[in-house]
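Field guide to reading this record: the first block holds the primary sequence, the second block holds the structure written as C-alpha cells, and the final block holds curator observations. Each block starts with its own label. This record concerns Protein GrpE, catalogued under organism Aquimarina addita.

BLOCK 1 — SEQUENCE
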Amino acid sequence: MEKKELIKGTSYMNKKNKNTEDVKDQVEEVLDATIEETETKTETENVDVETQLKNDLEKEKDKFLRLFAEFENYKKRTSRERIELFKTASQDVLQSMLPVIDDFDRAMKEIEKSDDKDLIKGVELIHNKLKETLKSKGLVEVEVNAGDSFNADDHEAITQIPAPSDELKGKIVDVIEKGYKLGDKVIRFPKVVTGQ
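BLOCK 2 — STRUCTURE
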C-alpha cells in the first residue's frame, strides 16, 4: 500500500509540479506580454512626447521668426518715416517763402530794366544767394516752359485761351506762377495757361 500511496503521491507531485510549471509558464507569458506592452507604450509615449516637443519647438521658432521679421519691418518703417520727416520738416517754412521768391523774381525783372549796373549786380547776388540757400534745403524749381505739353498731373491750368498757333493747341502757352518741389514731393504745382 505504501507503494501505491507513494505512486499516488508522486503522481500528485508530478501533476502539482506540472501545474506549477504551467502556472509558472503562464505567469511568465503574462509578464513578458506586460513588459512588451509597457515597453511599447513607453516607446510610443516617448515618440509622442518627442513629436509633441518637436511640434512645440517648431511653433516657437515660427513665432520667433515672425516677431523678428515684424521688428525688422518696424525698424525700416520708422527709419523711412524719420528720413521723410527730416526731408519735409522745413516744408511749412519753405512754402511760406514761395511768395517772397515770386516777388523777388518780379522785382528782378523790373530792376533789370534799370541802367544802374551796380544795383543790378548787387540784387542778382542777393537773389542767387537766396535761391542757392533754398536749393540746399531741398527746394527745386519745376521746369516748365511755354510750348511744353500740358499734363494735368504735373501742372495746374488756370485758364484756356485760343492758341496763337496750331502748334500750341493743348500745350502750355504761358507760365503764370512757377512750381516747386521739396525733394521728390511737389509742394506747389506750376500755374499755367493752356491753348485750345
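BLOCK 3 — OBSERVATIONS
The two ends are 147 Å apart (CA to CA).
Residues 172 and 194 are 4 Å apart (CA to CA).
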